[in-house]
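In the previous chapter we treated chains in isolation. Here, by contrast, the input contains two separate entities that must be folded as one system, with a combined length of 444 residues.
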Amino acid sequence: MNRRALLHRALALGALAALPGCDYENPQNPDLADDFLHAMSWFNDRVQQALFNPHTLAPTFSPDQITQPPRFNAFYDISDAPVVDPATYQLELGGQISDKTPWTLQKLRTLRQESQITRLTCVEGWRVIGQWSGIRLADFLRRTGADTTCRYVSFKCADGYYSSIDMESALHPQTILALDFLGAPLTPPFGAPVRLRIPTKLGFKNPKSVTYLAVGNVYTGGYWEDQGYNWFSGS
Amino acid sequence: MPIPTGAERPQKIHPLPLRLMHWVNAVAIIFMIGSGWQIYNASPLFGFSFPPVLTLGGWLAAGIAWHLAMMWFLMANGLIYLIWGFAAGHFRRKFLPISPRAVLRDFGQALSFRLKHERGVYNAVQRLLYIGVILAGIVVVLSGLAIWKPVQLWPLTTLCGGYFAARYVHFTAMAFIVAFIAVHVLLVILTPKTLPSMITGGQMPETQP
């Protein structure tokens, strides 16, 4: 079912159904519930940007608190997770980045690696604790000459997933391009060979198997965001 | 500018600001509960899910969108109510005094159907439940914020005992509010003359000299 049909169902259940101007039959017409929820989601993005403190760190945990076994989650079955050949993998760059030379996995490994034991909170309400290590995104953006005055950092993935985050969150010290998970290189279900790990946002803002990274001022949305989930989705 | 107080119009059972806030709250809380149950069903805390027909949104994204939209109306309205309640003397006049003895007495009378409804005056059980649901409202908002922003609003999350515990706190406060609404609506059905006064304001009985 598409989002509009579902919102219509929501509307039918809600008290707003009594309001004039709702159009249940013609999806071409502007929909009151859609407009209202979009406006409030936009407002919530602004509130979350205002609440965001670049110095507030997400809680960290001890190794014995790590969730075992790790929990797989995606919009497809675990057997459908994309398998990217690490030998030929390239992270391509786009947008307002001065050096757009693609990065191989080998070259990414030469950069300073950071490790963190943090909580991944799913939009569904469950959470797991894991250990990730990789490159600080802030380091990577500076190293490649990205214009960090831009508003967005966007990601495209090997599995067709895509997402984007605000620059302030991208520059947060705990935001990393993770290469390792639980002390070993990432495996396909968990986002091999490179995933974004951003503990100041919900799980779906942590795209896996990232193959393209761009910096810019044009809003690019995301796979779930375009279906109605809040874009900022900060923790 | 002084905040208008109910005392200026003593003849009304429910002053206009209270009636407005009551109905804004009623609409907001229905949206919050329906969408909250939708969100609960995505990752149930206990061994049950809410029947989909009682949930709002149709799926998780819409449930969250409704929840995070209507929360602002609930919170703003609730905050104004708290300020008004203290500033206008509403809480003091309507909820006080209250004693355990009076609560037990009125509760006993209520169970034996001997408790009289007095226009414009709350019995001790009502006073206790109204104070209780206001406190539950405060807890549900604070624990909700703790779940929404556990990193940026971490002191609230810590206050709730952490992210995991905050969901249980939020659920418990919701359950209390739902139980309150069930009793509240049941009593209105049993005493239908109380409903129009929450719309028109009603008339207080002539005061005895």
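The radius of gyration of chain B is 19 Å. Helices of chain B lie at 16-42, 60-87, 90-95, 100-111, 124-148, 154-159, 163-190, 194-200. Compare these points with the single-chain example from earlier in the chapter.
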